[in-house]
Design goal:
19 strands, alpha+beta, 2 domains, about 350 residues, ATP-binding, five-stranded antiparallel sheet, six-stranded mixed sheet, Rossmann fold, OB fold (Dihydrolipoamide Acetyltransferase, E2P)
């Protein structure tokens, strides 16, 4: 089985694209192909309109930040940042100027003479970013850039990368398995599975209207109902028929936990889907309560603000799904399998 199979992706100048997917899906292999660490068996890799698939990495005009930062321990922060310029025979005067500029950009101008062993993880990450940016690359590649940082520092560095990327106006391709990271940083997200790109769209499109079942589930959808389209209605076992948009013939309905509502068991709200539910579990996380519901034979998730009256396990309620809580998906693989 090919690690990467038929991947086709255009990245516009100044755009940031995330390769997102589970371990083994081919995202890191794709990045290494672009970087030049692996030669493709077939196909073309163009950077700035120039074919580079047979060029070594140092001739591709790319900057790369590795998962483990890959800093030289015997060099200072300034020495690490200067390394790429030295390899490109940049003059000493220009090199010193660009190194100072790059370190200032990442807020490390006062740590130019410090060695990596005396730096925090966040500081090492900034040095790695400065080293990648100082060569003024046509393309910046980031390989799981935040995975080695703790949760608080990860958010801080995510914001820092977004700022630097915008400030430099640099084209960026990065790999992550973290949905939140991809959705926060990227202009578009390419969701990968088994060596292929399943879907590539903006973060808003992927979260609001995923086209594929794999995308919805990978991005955290837990309330997915399988059913069939029949006479303009979606029918799922144990639920009332749900009106469909004109022409839609979905195989699955995805319900967004944060937009579902819970009302009293005797209420009769007006919504496309209203069904009796029993609270199975309730867990408070931050400013929301996460409910697990039994709705017929289904187990669904609902997330409601803590400001609302809490419901205890065993309580009965009505599950209310307004239109903006629903996404319709035709799972093409499922449909093809049934047709066969």
């Amino acid at each position: 089985m090919a690690a990467v199979d038929g991947v086709s992706l255009d990245v516009a100048r100044g755009e940031c694209i995330a390769l997102l997917g589970p371990s083994g899906c081919g995202k890191t292999t794709t990045l290494r192909l672009v970087a030049g660490f692996i030669a493709p068996d077939s196909g073309r890799i163009l950077i700035g309109g120039r074919a580079v698939e047979r060029d070594p990495p140092h001739r591709r005009q790319i900057g790369m930040v590795f998962q483990n930062y890959a800093l030289f321990p015997h060099l200072t922060a300034a020495g690490n940042v200067a390394f790429g310029l030295e390899m490109r025979n940049v003059s000493r005067a220009e090199r010193d100027s660009r190194v100072a500029e790059a370190l200032a950009m990442v807020g490390l101008d006062r740590l130019a003479d410090r060695y990596p062993a005396r730096m925090s993880g966040g500081q090492q990450q900034r040095v790695a970013l400065a080293r990648a940016l100082v060569i003024r690359p046509e393309l910046l590649l980031l390989d799981e850039p935040l995975s080695n940082l703790d949760a608080g520092l990860r958010v801080e560095m995510r914001e820092e990368i977004a700022r630097l990327r915008t400030q430099a106006g640099i084209t960026t391709l990065f790999v992550t398995h973290d949905q939140e990271e991809a959705l926060a940083l990227a202009d578009r997200v390419a969701v990968m599975d088994r060596g292929r790109i399943v879907e590539c769209a903006s973060p808003a499109e992927l979260t609001e209207h995923p086209r594929h079942l794999f995308t919805a589930r990978f991005l955290g959808a837990r309330s997915v109902l399988e059913g069939r389209a029949e006479a303009g209605m979606f029918r799922a076992a144990g639920l009332p028929p749900i009106p469909l948009p004109a022409g839609a013939r979905p195989t699955h309905l995805v319900l967004r936990a944060a937009r579902l509502r819970l009302t009293g068991p005797d209420s009769a709200p007006d919504a496309p889907l209203v069904a009796a539910a029993r609270i199975e579990a309730a867990t408070r996380l931050d400013d929301a309560v996460h409910y697990e519901l039994a709705v017929g034979a289904h187990r669904l998730r609902v997330r409601r603000p803590t400001a609302e009256p809490a419901l205890s396990p065993g309580a009965h309620a009505m599950l209310v799904a307004p239109t903006d809580a629903m996404s319709w998906i035709e799972d093409f693989e499922t449909a093809a399998g049934e047709a066969a």
